Amino acid sequence: MKKRIFIDMDEVMADAYWAVVHRYESQFQVTIDRSLIYEKKLWELIPDDHYDIAFSFLQEPGFFRNLKVIKGAQDVIKQLHKKHEVFIASAAMQFPNSLQEKSEWLDEHFSFISWQNRILCGHKYILRGDVLIDDSSHNLESFEGEQKLLFSSPHNNNVQEFTRVNNWDEVATLLL
Ligand SMILES: [Mg+2]
Question: Mapping DSSP to helix (H, G, I), strand (E, B) and coil, where does residue 166 land?
C-alpha cells in the first residue's frame, strides 16, 4: 500500500553533524575524542565558551549548501519516491538563511523531488501521514503516523523509544 512518508534532511539526508565536528576541529586545532562522541552530546564535549562559536557555524553562508549526502540516501529515496508519496520535511526556519541553500542542495542531489514535495517548515507536528524518518526524538514524539523511524546519529545513540534505522539499507528493508 502506498504510504505518505516524510523525510528529515539534516542527519538523515545531509551530514550536518560531522560537518560541525570537522569545522570545529579545524578552527580550534583539536580532535574531539571519537569514543565519547557516541556517549555524549557534542555540546558536552566542547568548552562552554566555544558553544556560541560552534553554533554560529550553522549560520555561516554555504554551510547547508555544501553538506555531504549521507550514504545510500539518493538510491533509496529515489526508490521510495517511485513506490510511495515522499515529502522532504526540514525545520529550516531555525536558520532562515538555510532555506535557499537547502533548496539548491535538493536541486543538486535530489532533483527528482519537486518543490511541491519539499516542506521547509517550523514545527513538524503539523505533518499528517504514515511515516516520519528523523534523527530527532522530539519530532518523532509528536508525530501521529504509524511508523516513527529514528535515523541513527551520534547524538541519539542512547534513545530507545523508537524503531531505529542505522542506515538507508535498513530503511529500504522496512519500506520497499
Ligand atoms: Mg535532523
Answer: coil
